[in-house]
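Usage

Read records sequentially. Each one opens with the input sequence:
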Amino acid sequence: MPVIYDNIEKRLTTGLNETLEDSNRIDACIGYFNLRGWKELADKIEDLPGAEVVEGDDSVHRVCRILVGMQKRPVELLEEHFDQPDGHLIDNSEVNKQKRILADEFKKQLTIGTPTETDERAF
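and closes with the structure output:
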């Protein structure tokens, strides 16, 4: 059964670590993620018996899949729609510009803050 962690009443790190103790693999959908938090789960992910295994040059790692992203609030979508001039059409140039903006925002979300040495080792 899906569980929603709001980090107020239910802490994500605590819940995931408890769940991982009884899991074979992990597939998760989350709204926000920062790579600096990976160290909180990395050891448990490496112990999952049913996770896909990927071999690197000098190491072997287990894989987990996470889908990261937050949808805009409906009011934001409406504001964007009505802020456009009448008859405004979006062309490929505008679509590509918006894709670059979204990718840059996602990169910032993932990497905000200076990672510590422990964070770096967990990646």
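Summary fields computed downstream for this record:
- The longest strand covers residues 27-30.
- The chain has a mean pLDDT of 80.
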